[in-house]
Request: fold
Amino acid sequence: MSKPTHAGLPSNRSKLLQTALSVIDGYNSWSLSEIASPRTKDCTQQCHPMSLKGPLYTSPEEYCEYYKTMIPLFRNFKMEVIGYAEDQTQNKVIFHAMATAETDVGPYENEFVWMIQTTQDQDKVCGIREFLDSAYTVDFLKKMWERMQEEGKTTWG
Reply:
């Protein structure tokens, strides 16, 4: 699997941008330990818009307990950053990204905006607000759920 180049980012990256990018790189590794690695022990994460009713996860462990059910459903997952903004005084980075993967119901292609908050020293991520294409997500998850039911599965993963 080729590593995304993040063409929308400069090659000379600030510490803040590097720390925030470690979140995206964790997903590109498709490893729960790498997804959790850049986060503080009380890092929060929530999926938006609110119409998706995404729960607020209050630790990497809690989030990974949920996300481990997603790992087997996607293959060759890649997230490519195509734009960003960073605020050094607020320790925040916003990424515009596209994600692709292979699944049993066909290709996955979704658009994301990630709002990432780091600690004051910019060493760790302490908050993530993830926005995605809600219409696409609802439709795609419905297809995945239907396929799983056809296979006799009653839970994700």
